[in-house]
Amino acid sequence: MAVLVTLNQPSKDYFIVASTRFTDKALTATGILHYSNSNTPASGPLPAEPAGQINWSMDQARSLRWNLTASAARPNPQGSFHYGTIPTSRSIVLANSAPLIAVKQRYAVNGVSFVIPDTPLKLADNYNIANVFTWDSLSLTPTAGPAILGTPVVRLNLHEFVEIVFQNTETKVQSWHLDGYDFWPVGYGSGAWTESQRSTYNLVDATSRHTVQVYPNGWSAIFVSLDNQGMWNIRSSMWARQYLGQQFYFRVWTQQQSLANEYTIPSNALRCGKATSILH
């Protein structure tokens, strides 16, 4: 996290306090902001530890808005891309879970726990190597039943405009990252997401991000413009969950092969796994 602070207070020392939220025990770190001409030490009581106020935090997340009245360092002003007026081509709902598979702790997305193959997915896709991953084996809505192991890749079309909803039925906050893109987080809510929740979306001035939080027993919705061709990872930002399966891949593609969309693979690209024997 990065913040900007306007130093417009009387010259003295001030406490800077950061505390965790939604953890079993609140962890607090304290620093000092020191004015160069200060002769007054920081004083006063420190803020209390944060309470587990999910609604308060959710309202704070909704309050983060883009200033559409400011000019940007490009010909078009901020907000000229009206994401809220673009029809979505499809809706994807992704639910995280923490199943046991073969008596071992795993993490999953829509009932599939990702297994990292010995051959990079991009190499397998480029050279049409079989039995590395499976196309479209991940349901695009949450599924019932036991979780399974797999290496799914979901096929999407270049320039699609997609709604993705992250559904969290667990009691811990989740964090999701989409590789290769930024997106607009348009909505947060509690309970199970339904189509009626779209009426609560911010369709005007959401900030662009590439990571989004999902509150306990809640949901977060994003809009993303798939304008970057390639094989892209969508994953938990919590490393243990990512390593143990809470991730999968999008393949954004078009039949129109063009260097404007994607460069060809270099002739000297390193090859490993099942791609080792492919000639340069």
Automatic annotation (TrEMBL):
A GO term, aspect molecular function: oxidoreductase activity
Pfam families assigned: Cu-oxidase, Cu-oxidase_2
SUPFAM superfamilies, per database record: Cupredoxins
Domain (Plastocyanin-like): residue spans on this chain: 1-38, 119-257
InterPro entries per record: Cu-oxidase_2nd, Cu-oxidase_C, Cu-oxidase_fam, Cupredoxin
Similarity section: Belongs to the multicopper oxidase family.
Name listed for the protein in its UniProt record: Monocopper oxidase-like protein SKU5
Taxonomic classification: Eukaryota, Viridiplantae, Streptophyta, Embryophyta, Tracheophyta
